[in-house]
Amino acid sequence: MDRVRILFVCTFFGGRARIAENYAQQMGLEHIEAYSSGFEAGTLGGLPVRVMEEAGFNFSTTPLTTVFERYANNESFDYVITLCHETSTEKCPVFRDSVDMVYGKQAQILDWSILDFLALKGFPDEKLEGARKIRDTIKSEVYEFLSKI
User: Fold this and answer.
1) Pairs from 86-91 (Cβ < 8 Å, separation ≥ 24)
2) Which residues, in sequence order, are bridge partners of residue 32?
3) What integer pLDDT is reported at residue 90 of this predicted model?
4) CA distance linking residue 67 with residue 55, whole number of Å
5) Surface-to-core class of residue 73, CB atoms within 10 Å of its CB (0-12 exposed, 13-18 middle, 19+ buried)
6) Residue 17: pLDDT band by 50, 70, 90 thresholds?
7) Is pLDDT of 87 > 80?
8) CA distance 140 to 138
9) What is the count of structural domains for the chain?
10) CATH number where 86 lies
11) Which of the four pLDDT bands, split at 50, 70 and 90, describes residue 91?
């Protein structure tokens, strides 16, 4: 069976994308190669790291390879999955159009509406609970998607 290459992409530094990559790798499917990218280079930290460590992951905080670097390196994928949320402060239509422009001719583009950690409001414990919901939503989406391919 040919290997299926999947790129998870989100805006900013790629926290949601890295979470999706971690869960895809956790499934251990031999025919799946999962990667993550952000639109900006930067160090991951804060809530994504905390909730993934709670879930038992050694969550890397090193900067991701940006989607533009992957394109410049001629990396190709079977699926490119965007993780952004229409009602948050992100510019989802511009973001998705950019991903489609870069990868649309070679990959199937899928869009998952996942709230950004930066959009969480409230006291620290409320933000943490929101971050757990984001993590769990990503996990569910990844498992459902991978069970179908």
Assistant:
1) 86/113, 88/115, 88/116, 88/118, 88/119, 89/116, 89/118, 89/119, 90/11, 90/116, 90/119, 91/11
2) 4
3) 55
4) 27
5) exposed
6) very high
7) no
8) 5
9) 1
10) 3.40.50.2300
11) low
Structural element, H or E, at residue 34: strand 32-38
> Which has the closest alpha carbon to 77: 145, 17, 5?
5
Cα dihedral 51→55→58→60 (10° resolution) = -40
Amino acid at 27: M
Average pLDDT value for residue range 74-103: 80
In what side-by-side order are the strands of the sheet with 32-38? 32-38, 4-10, 79-84, 108-113
d(CA 18, CA 104) in angstroms, rounded, equals 21
Q: Hey, what amino acid is at 2?
A: D
Q: What is the distance between the alpha carbons of residues 59 and 49, in angstroms, rounded to a whole number?
A: 6
Q: With CA atoms as reference, report the closest residue to 13 among 135, 116, 109, 132.
A: 116
Ramachandran angles phi, psi of 146, nearest 5°: -65, -25
Q: Which domain holds residue 72?
A: 4-148
